[in-house]
Amino acid sequence: MTKTINLTLKVWRQKNGNVKGRMETYEARGISTDMSFLEMIDVVNEGLILKGEDPIAFDHDCREGICGMCGAVVNGRPHGPEKGTTLCQLHMRHFDDGDEVVVEPWRSRAFKVIKDLVVDRSAFDSIIQAGGYISVNTGGAQDANAIPVPQNVAEKAMDAAECIGCGACVAACPNASAMLFVSAKVSQLALLPQGRPEAAGRVKAMVSKMDDMGFGHCGNERECEAECPKNISIVNIARMNREFIKASLK
Amino acid sequence: MSWLTDTLTSSIGKKLLMAASGLFFCCFLVVHLIGNLTVFGGSETFNSYVDHLHSLGPLIRIAEVLMAIFAFVHVVTGLSLALDNFKARPVKYEMKKNGGGRTLGSATMPYTGLVLLLFVLVHLKGFHFADHTSRSVFDIMTGAFSDPVIVGFYVFAMAVVAVHVSHGFWSAFQTLGLNHEKYTPAIKGLSLIFSLTVGVGFGFIPVWLSFF
Ligand code: FES
What we know:
The complex is a heterodimer. Chain A is of the alpha+beta class. Chain A is built from eight helices and seven strands. A five-stranded mixed sheet of chain A has the order 2-1-5-3-4. In chain A, strand 6 and strand 7 (118-119) form a beta hairpin. In chain A, helix 5 packs antiparallel against helix 6 (199-212). Chain B is mainly alpha-helical. In chain B, 76% of the residues lie in helices and 0% in strands. In chain B, helix 2 crosses helix 4, helix 2 crosses helix 9 (184-209) and helix 4 packs antiparallel against helix 6 (109-128). Chain B has helices at residues 2-9, 11-36, 43-54, 58-87, 104-107, 109-128, 137-144, 148-175, 184-209. Chain B is globular, with a radius of gyration of 19 Å. Chains A and B meet through strand 4, helix 6, helix 7 and helix 8 of A and helix 1, helix 2, helix 4 and helix 8 of B. FE2/S2 (inorganic) cluster (FES) is lined by residues 60-63, 65-70, 86-88 of chain A.
């Protein structure tokens, strides 16, 4: 039998980026504990629509923790209180009947609020455009096994590649720094032979773009790795620092 | 030179400046603490240590100039980073909790840093720029530490140093790109030992001297 709970939500409501927002209180009644956090907001939104009110805007896509679209700060924690979990994979069984739940968008100068819980994360896209890719020449594709990659290196690259670019690291960082995101992207490519030819230019371009976008500076507070839904480690930040030092001496 | 200015004015570059100057001061703390241990040998041992130090002449001048430069770099870069960080989140969270990464040290770096700046100025005024013609450094010390307010201030400042380096020490290695599961636990352990040694080591001296 499914258990249901009632919650009081305090949600950030903001019509658009040009007007001031504020916290609004909503009652979420009869929420099944099997629901995800996003499904809970769906239920609240259905009620709002029936009353002729504006539903709470929030980002989402895959709802299976792989796309990086969802995310909000729930009771002071990006993606909520569960470790290594995206908001769409956060289940209501982690809440108790009668809980008050505070829901806010990512806060950063670089992520402007578009509406309610939806923020503009195109700063991340700009960083990727600056160098988060490898150039591939046209022609016949070479045999995939022709470039040997040691197992442990492949593992590290895969760990970095787990980053879904959700922005929780920026939201969690006391300084709103994007270092974990950028370092995951830099690492993923720098570790593999295909990424080496452009490694120096890449790290310089991506760091310089990151600086331009208005993020804060990393203070090694480690809040990013603590809140990352993909458990990306700050070992990647150290690797990016190494890559950056090497690149400046090239 | 442009590659150097490009590097050092970037966000990672500023962090490198903080790490390098910070580690320089960690080394200074070690040397200073070892020297200070002569206090426990009494007035003669300590004054002879001071005389030997001063007899190094130009070497001491060079060290002082280096320290002044590094202090300038550390303070100015630190303030600029703190200011940028303050501006990076214009709208604050209604509710924000720590995920488990932050420590007392990491959360208070700019504030403990400013307290230490104040302490260094007071300390230099009281000892370095004190009148050395009529009194030995040992006498200046025992004179100062006969005042419980000064003892309290020094002990407090040394607790603040301990908190500051508890984050600063390991953090400098991370910034320099040194983080690996094999040796980072050792650096973290050393960080704790170092901050405790510095805090207790320096903090005990004014208390000890207040009994003279
Ligand atoms: S909606 Fe895709 S990760 Fe949450």
